[in-house]
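Exercise 7b. Backbone tokens:
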């Protein structure tokens, strides 16, 4: 019998055939970014180490420098990625499809629950504020990333005013900053506040009470009555 010929492999495109692994640049970059967010959130820009990021990402230094250039550029990319994640999650709320009061309730709840589920977001922002936002100032996309949020909130306020539920003249940017601050300050200072007031501010009942308090404050401020 004639010897059976073996099929040819497709080189690097053949996945693991011939011992060669298909490269996936987007996946590699995403793994590095995720590892960077964790490391920078834990140790800040100054304390974070490229070696730790590469180990967590299962990558190597060459890939980090290839995709991001240097440590500070990687820090900026991690910040942009963190903001992109929360902005996309906010868009999925579909606030434009809800009644004004219901939409505002949902936004307050979402912001609070996002901070609880992503404490690294708060610590990343704390780190960048220590640097006076010198990295975000170099970002070419951060402002455009926030524009849809402002437009959506502005529309929600306008619909509420037309319906007689919200008072007029509310600045959407100021309002969002206040909503964010109500949760951000509470969580970023929970250890000191718990000690000062002799309460465990992170226990489930306390977190539930905080959400109710935040919602009441925001809706009370917006009320047209």
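Sequence design result:
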């Amino acid at each position: 019998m004639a010897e059976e010929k073996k099929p040819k492999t497709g080189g690097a495109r053949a996945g693991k055939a011939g011992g060669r692994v298909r490269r996936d640049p987007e996946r590699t970059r995403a793994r590095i970014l995720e590892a960077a967010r964790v490391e920078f959130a834990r140790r800040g820009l100054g304390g974070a180490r490229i070696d730790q990021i590469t180990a967590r990402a299962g990558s190597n230094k060459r890939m980090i420098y290839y995709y991001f250039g240097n440590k500070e550029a990687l820090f900026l990319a991690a910040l942009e990625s963190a903001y992109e994640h929360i902005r996309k999650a906010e868009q999925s709320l579909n606030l434009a499809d809800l009644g004004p009061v219901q939409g505002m309730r949902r936004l307050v709840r979402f912001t609070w629950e996002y901070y609880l589920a992503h404490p690294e977001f708060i610590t990343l922002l704390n780190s960048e504020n220590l640097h006076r936002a010198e990295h975000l100032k170099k970002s070419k996309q951060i402002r455009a990333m926030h524009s849809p949020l402002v437009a959506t909130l502005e529309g929600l306020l306008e619909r509420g005013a037309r319906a007689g539920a919200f008072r007029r003249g509310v600045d959407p940017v100021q309002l969002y900053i206040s909503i964010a601050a109500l949760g951000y300050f509470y969580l970023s200072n929970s250890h000191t506040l718990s000690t000062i007031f002799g309460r465990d501010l992170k226990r489930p009942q306390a977190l539930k009470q905080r959400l109710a308090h935040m919602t009441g404050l925001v809706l009370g401020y917006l009320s047209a009555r």
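Instructor comment: The two ends are 94 Å apart (CA to CA). The chain has a mean pLDDT of 90.
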